[in-house]
Write a structure and sequence with these properties.
By secondary structure, the chain is α+β, with helices and mostly antiparallel strands. Helices cover 32% and strands 34% of the residues. The protein contains four helices and seven strands.
Length: 148
């Protein structure tokens, strides 16, 4: 599978929060099982309702989700998921650019996120200028200064 055509990739406000929560659960089940994280799809849908939720669409089909929030002068990437068959095809990088666009439109210059230490997404974030600013037993807390 090659890199998707940029013109066919679209970020659209999420219409189905439960469906987006299900996609997240499918992607994250390995990590949730490893760390015994409880998961309730309806609860997650309710918790994410206040976020800026985007479906990532390729040829009008959902291939991922991006959830953002603005807090204390920082744009938080609350969730970035790409379904397994489309990982490593540039979609995550495009989602990070979308997060940057959103932050800059809000005049915010810091992108922040937390990621499981065992997640392969850590390398994506490092390649795109994020640095670890804190860590605990499960997570890296990462930031990118958009002015740099």
């Amino acid at each position: 599978m090659s890199k998707p055509d940029a013109d066919k990739l679209e970020f659209r406000p999420t219409r189905d929060l439960k469906g987006a929560a299900a996609l997240t659960l499918t992607n994250m089940r390995t990590y949730y099982d490893a760390y015994q994280v409880s998961w309730d799809e309806a609860q997650i849908a309710a918790m994410t309702a206040a976020l800026y939720n985007l479906d990532i669409l390729l040829d009008n089909r959902p291939v991922g989700v991006l959830r953002l929030s603005l807090d204390d002068g920082t744009c938080w990437i609350r969730d970035l998921q790409v379904i397994a068959k489309w990982q490593n095809h540039g979609i995550g990088a495009r989602a990070l650019k979308e997060a940057q666009r959103y932050a800059q439109a809000a005049n915010v210059h810091i992108l922040s996120l937390k990621v499981f230490k065992i997640s392969p997404a850590v390398s994506l974030y490092l390649r795109h200028g994020f640095r670890v600013v804190e860590e605990d037993d499960r997570f890296y807390y990462m930031q990118r200064d958009l002015r740099a």
